[in-house]
């Protein structure tokens, strides 16, 4: 840090100039990320209330009340008006908290958690952090976890099972009802990771898509990750973790004595945390309502299906599966998928690369013209690779 401070104008100019090299959502070129451009009102309220600290809720009881209301709205969206939880930093923190809860409840030291092979890497982080063994189970031909294999993997050390409602790679939904049955039968903690799907599946169901039950309507589900900073149009950081009831939420709760607002309960991994995030979630959910999100999801899905239909028309390319939600897997039996991703990136498309496919996510910021331009560039790439 230099000794003398610099003028505001100079700093803003430098920031404008340095940051303009980054990708922008408005360009429509970010088609591999699960995040999107936050709603303009969310930006406004986030900036207006960014001094609110939910880690010291005695100082900000009104903000804490808004978080409670937000969790009731999210719980209601996911079929449980009695759900409680917190707005956290993201899906990673939510998944860590869920497994931390499962571990504490089990009171075991040598524990295993069963997750699908499609699970997000946050479960590997949780395993390392919490000293849990993660047992990864194979998928079926629809990219859902193989429930038979999950059953076989259960043993006396197993404390929890994880199902995914909207996998990171392909947006697939695991058979949550079957996993729930198993969890209830074997007395296991059952966590559903709907970090992405939580803000998509309820609206797809409203729109008439066939959506299996994946939320608290399924009796064995103990907790759900649902991230407003993905399809919820809320600024980062805004993840969400919901528990079926208050007893579960309190499993990893701590009384923090030293805070200036008085003794406060914290039940998240972090202490000091953004009240503005919870306020922004509350605002966007109230502003858009179910109908607003429905419209957004309808449009994302329309473009997703167009993309999924047009990809196989390009020689040498195919989609991995029929999309379940607004995620498309692009594969090739002819070209090296890494080369396709490299060429697309050279053409300034921010795609996401998995071991055997490219993931495309049609977020709310992606418009029809972007999809058309992408398809044109994709065809060019395939033509060039063919020589
Ligand atoms: C299914 C799923 N869970 C969890 C996460 C982690 O979320 P975050 O990056 O907000 O920590 C992701 C990220 O894409 C995800 O797809």
Describe this structure as you would to a colleague.
There is one protein chain. This protein is α/β, with parallel strands linked by helices and 387 residues long. 40% of the residues lie in helices and 14% in strands. The protein has helices at 8-19, 40-48, 61-77, 91-106, 122-130, 147-153, 176-186, 201-206, 246-249, 275-310, 337-346, 368-386; strands at residues 84-88, 112-116, 133-137, 158-164, 189-193, 223-225, 239-243, 254-256, 264-266, 318-319, 327-331, 352-353, 358-361. The longest helix is centred in the C-terminal third of the chain and has 36 residues, at 275-310. The protein binds pyridoxal-5'-phosphate (PLP). Residues 34, 90-92, 95, 120, 122, 164, 166, 168, 193, 195-196, 227, 239 line the site of pyridoxal-5'-phosphate (PLP).
Topology pattern, helix = H, strand = E: HHHEHEHEHEHEHEEHEEHEEHEEH
Could you state the oligomeric state of the chains shown?
A: single chain
Number of DSSP-assigned strands? 13
Ends: how far apart? 52 Å
Bound molecules: pyridoxal-5'-phosphate
The best one-word shape is: globular
Overall mean confidence score, pLDDT: 98
Number of DSSP helices? 12
The strand order across the widest sheet is 1-7-6-5-4-2-3
Question: In percent, how helical is the residue content?
Answer: 40-55%
Question: Pairing-aware structural class of the strands and helices?
Answer: alpha/beta
DSSP strand (E) fraction?
A: 5-15%
Largest sheet, if any?
7 strands, mixed
* Radius of gyration of CA atoms, rounded to a whole number: 22 Å
Low-confidence parts:
none
